[in-house]
Amino acid sequence: MRKDKRVDAIVLDTLKQTGIRSLPVDIDYWYKCKGWQHFSYDQVKRDGAAIHRSRNTYSHGTEAGAVIYYDDTVRSAGRVRWMLAQEGARLILGKGTDDKSVDHFVNTLLIPFAPLVHLKMESADSVMRMFDVPREKACARLKELRLRRFLAEQSAGFKGLDLEFLRQFRLE
């Protein structure tokens, strides 16, 4: 749990540094603020370069300046956003970071708990529309939310980082 709090703090710091205050989080703007670029594999192929397609995304560079390539055969805009957020998380958290921490970063960035609770989001469809994420990610986050909501109600409100997330998105 302590590791999750560290990742939450990194996500909140990322939002504050870039000035992102609206939902859904604008991945293109986030990349621009970080000095990163992203291209589809097809764009690279048209330019005559070859990239080994070992997974849906590939990046090279550092947090200070990176180029990220993604699989353009993925038709869902929400899925592409998710893949790009995963690569961004790997760059920020460092290469070799475990997948659980990367997934936690992406969940916290794209579907933060505090707005879900504050806005009383109940259905996967509403989460998909509000946060522009794939259905399975919306369903999984709502499942996690049930426990988090229960704990927030038991403690009579938001505290710590959850309260800061509400303030970041002007929902307090």
Alpha carbon gyration radius: 16 Å
- Helicity, as a percent range: 55-70%
Largest sheet: 3 strands, mixed
Strand residue content: 5-15%
Distance between the termini: 25 Å
Given helix and strand content, the structural type is mainly alpha
Low-confidence stretches: 50-54
Counting DSSP E segments of at least 2 residues, the number of strands comes to 3
Reading the helices and strands in chain order gives HHEHEEHHHHHH
Summarize the structure.
With 172 residues, this protein is mainly alpha-helical. The protein is built from 9 helices and 3 strands.
Q: Could you explain how this protein is built, in words?
A:
By secondary structure, this protein is mainly alpha-helical. It has one domain (2-168). Helix content is 60%, strand content 9%. The chain has 9 helices and 3 strands; from the N terminus they run H-H-E-H-E-E-H-H-H-H-H-H. It has helices at 2-18, 27-34, 41-46, 77-93, 99-110, 113-118, 124-131, 135-154, 160-168; strands spanning 37-40, 57-62, 65-70. Strands 1-3-2 form a 3-stranded mixed sheet. Helix 1 runs parallel beside helix 9. It is globular and about 55 Å long. Mean pLDDT is 83; it is low at 50-54.
